[in-house]
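Researcher: Sit down with what I've pasted below and flag anything odd:
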Amino acid sequence: MDGQDFRRRLSQLLDLPADVTLDLPKILIIGPLQMAIENHRGLVEYTPERLVVALSKGQMVVSGRSLIIGTITSEEITVLGEIESLRFES
């Protein structure tokens, strides 16, 4: 059993949130208009049509129109605008 499997099983056994135990991002999307990303590793790229966020394992790419960064802190990034797609890259 590798470390990832161990953390996943421990998370299930202790009923802990996976975003904490597995170092995964927590993403809240409110319709196509707003997004909050927690547990990120920083902003890699930003244009009004594309946002790239570094994660512990890879990156997350958000595509849309009129994208605006509402807030950015070490804990959370909020994005406003017309969110059209979200994908994860290794």
About this structure: The radius of gyration is 14 Å. The first helix runs from residue 3 to 13. The helical segments are 3-13, 18-21. The beta strands are 26-30, 34-38, 43-47, 50-54, 59-72, 76-89.
